[in-house]
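User: Run a structure prediction on this.
Assistant: Running it now.
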Amino acid sequence: MELILKYFPDLTEEQERQFAALYDLYSDWNSKINVISRKDIGNLYEHHVLHSLGIAKVVNFRPGTKIMDLGTGGGFPGIPLAILFPEVRFHLMDSIGKKIRVATEIADSIGLKNVTFRHARAEEEKQTFDFVVSRAVMPLADLLKIIRKNISSKQQNALPNGLICLKGGELEHEAMPFKNKTIMWDLKDFFEEEFFQTKKVVYVAN
């Protein structure tokens, strides 16, 4: 939790309470339904919560923004972002029902009011959003093909509507077909922990 306050010192008491509650909740649920590697639960705040919040270092979503978290798993990056942006609406989707159950239960436990959940494949979702966010669920080209229909044409943020991904490794080749629409940020420029040395935020405009 200290790690979150280190980089996001202006949290409200309610946000601090919600972030602090995540460790026990994920530890408990993870013992029943494996949504995070069992070896990795001790790194929850660094590898999952702070990693998710890397998106907030490149865009400050305006109130009323609608965001779909595709392939959310146990709720990343959607739940940490929903805590940080209480006036932004998040729709968390995953094709695996038990993972959506965990994310739903955790959001309910901490009192998140700005999230909805759906157990479905991305192809089935017809709603439109300002942004789709995701943590490395598939190659960029495949992801863009699926979510183009879900990006709204109405703009309300400083960053034009599009896809925002958290990915690792060398991504230049993967992003090459969209290079004129793509911006990448190295998370090591925002977070000093070793884990972030190879992690990036990748944005592709619609």
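The mean pLDDT is 95.
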